[in-house]
Known about the structure:
Low-confidence stretches: none
Helix content: 25-40%
Mean pLDDT: 95
Number of strands: 8
Strand order of the largest sheet: 3-2-1-4-5-6-7-8
Distance between the termini: 36 Å
Amino acid sequence: MFSEKELERYDRQIRIFGKRGQSLIKRGTAFIAGAGGLGSAVSMYLAAAGVGRLMIADADFVEISNLNRQILHNNSSLGLSKVRSAEKTLQDLNPEIKVEAIQELISEENVMELTKGAVLIVDALDNFSARYLLNKVALKRNVPLFHGAISGFDGQATTIIPGKTACLRCVFPRTPPKKTSPALGATCGVIGSIQALEVLKYLCGEGELLENRLLIWDGIRSETDEIAIERNPECSDCRSLAKFK
């Protein structure tokens, strides 16, 4: 199952998950929506951990204003598509995994096709219209959705399990007003790391996930809080697309 090089690479986490857990990580396929600040942190930690296949989707190109937080990219990436830059960074980080660069804008027409084959979806986006599309496709495919969002020093994260937890639309029934939020790289690192940890726990079946809990990070005070969330029986997304316990 593992080469000698892989056993050496993953030695410190095999001490946590065991070889069985590492094999479950290796067999995982994650669809990561976004190669920006959150997507950088999530994808780099999942790649380093040995998630076998990372599908990363983004339609944008690298600009200098991205570089304060989007650590997948650097000065030599300027002008390149974010997913091609991400692919190179992630394959350099871990050549043992497969990275698929998807230079597409996620839309209602393509989201089902783009996520085909993924056993989980990571929301590393910065707009709720596309997040709602991910929410719907996660419910349709019966795969978990790992949500994260940041603004300045603040961030949030939750893990959505179809058939078990509230969906994203239950938690955020209306699209927030569109705005360009301030973005700090360290905040992306905090929330992206939480998302990556949730993914690894899910793949291995270890620990307690952020199910029906919205974790709130206050970076100014270095404090976390939790809001209990529950399914809305009138939710337009999950009412007809999932069977709940």
